[in-house]
Design a protein that fits this description.
There is one protein chain. By secondary structure, this protein is α/β, with parallel strands linked by helices. The protein folds into two domains: about 5-60 and about 340-345, 5,6-Dimethylbenzimidazole Phosphoribosyltransferase, Chain: A, domain 1, CATH 1.10.1610; about 65-335, Nicotinate-nucleotide-dimethylbenzimidazole phosphoribosyltransferase (CobT), large domain (Rossmann fold, 3-Layer(aba) Sandwich). The chain has 15 helices and five strands. Strands 2-1-3-4-5 form a five-stranded parallel sheet, with helices on both faces. Strand 4, helix 13 (about 270-285) and strand 5 form a beta-alpha-beta unit. The longest helix has 20 residues, at about 150-170.
Length: about 350
């Protein structure tokens, strides 16, 4: 992979400011109600202060729901609840029209919405240019029998994710709610998590965002098993792993997460796809997870395994599997509340 050295991220990514976090903890001792009585809101406020490098913490006012979209060739096997080829693009159109669950919540919560098409299986002319300008290819390879991407495509997608992270940081986004939108993406995510955690396909095979019956679950389990045979030999190179068993959307999310950590932009993760990409990113730079929150537990076994490996404790446990960042959006008010309380509660006299 010419010109892109992933080892640089381990040097570039620093942890949120520990000195500022101590200052935030000390300030918390001086304000009411008593320390600990606000539960995880105290922890969130201190984490935000460290991420922002400021005490008192600044309010979260420019949150963005960022959704990476792509289609996966493995969906041809009937491993998903949605139809291969057309399901994801229709969901993208609904999000852009403000009619999806994530779009409605984002609007109500005051978060901007951005959709980034990395590899939808459709003609790009049918979507706005600002959605498709980072697209790498149409669809992806069937990961049970072939690579999802070429080496060049994997690097291009990874770099696109980095570019999106820079665009968001430069525009003043102060918190990203990360979502994904695909058909077949949870199969790729399960493969990545099983490979990185050294476990079997059956342990990580969930029912997906749309829900699948027992026969589809068995097909999905078999697809992950076959994809694992191709993933394990390239575990030492994260870009090769994303090319073999991920997809353009997953490669872009991984690049986005790492560059967001470089740019000190906090991110709320959603479901199993963002968890899988985060796990790949952790392999690249072990400090990177300090910049992320797990928004919710979706009930997917692969997500639970990935979050446990990264020591990320979900803020909510409502079993939301619809995707698009919907579950993570539900955690946004908690983060905003933590920031408001940490900033505005007066110190005791």
């Amino acid at each position: 992979m010419s010109g892109l050295n992933l080892d640089d991220f381990a040097t570039l990514i620093e942890r949120p400011d520990s000195g500022v976090r101590r200052d935030a903890e000390e300030r918390r001792e001086r304000i009411g109600p008593r320390p600990g009585s606000l539960g995880r809101l105290d922890e969130l406020g201190e984490w935000l202060a460290a991420a922002q490098g400021a005490v008192p913490v600044k309010p979260v006012e420019r949150a963005r729901l960022l959704v990476f979209a792509g289609d996966h060739g493995v969906a041809e096997l009937g491993v998903s609840g949605g139809p291969a080829g057309v399901g994801a693009v229709e969901l993208v159109r609904a999000a852009l029209a403000g009619e999806s669950s994530a779009a409605i919540l984002a609007r109500r919560l005051g978060a901007g919405l951005r959709v980034v098409d990395m590899s939808l299986d459709c003609d790009p002319d049918g979507l706005p240019e600002d959605v498709t300008r980072h697209r790498v290819r149409r669809g992806s390879g069937r990961i049970d029998i072939e690579d999802a991407l070429t080496a060049e495509e994997a690097e291009a997608a990874f770099r696109a994710g980095m570019a999106v992270a820079d665009e968001e940081a430069d525009s003043g986004t102060d918190l990203v709610v990360l979502g994904d939108l695909s058909v077949g993406g949870t199969t790729a995510a399960g493969t990545l998590i099983a490979a990185l955690c050294g476990t079997d396909a059956s342990v990580v095979t969930g029912r997906g965002g749309a829900g699948i019956d027992d026969l589809a679950w068995m097909r999905k389990c078999a697809a992950i098993r076959d994809a694992l045979r191709r993933a394990r030999p390239v575990l030492g190179d994260q870009l090769e792993l994303l090319a073999a068993s991920g997809g353009a959307d997953l490669a872009a999310i991984t690049g986005f997460l790492l560059q967001s950590a470089v740019r000190r932009t906090p991110v709320i993760l959603d479901g199993v796809v963002s968890a899988a990409c985060a796990l790949v990113a952790q392999r690249v730079a072990f400090r990177a997870p300090d910049w992320w929150l797990a928004g919710q537990a979706s009930g997917d076994p692969a997500q639970a395994k990935a979050l446990d490996r990264m020591a990320l404790n979900p803020l909510l446990d409502h079993g939301v599997t619809v995707g698009e960042g919907t579950g993570a959006l539900l955690a946004l008010p908690l983060v905003q509340a933590a920031a408001a309380l940490a900033a505005e509660l007066p110190e005791r006299t």
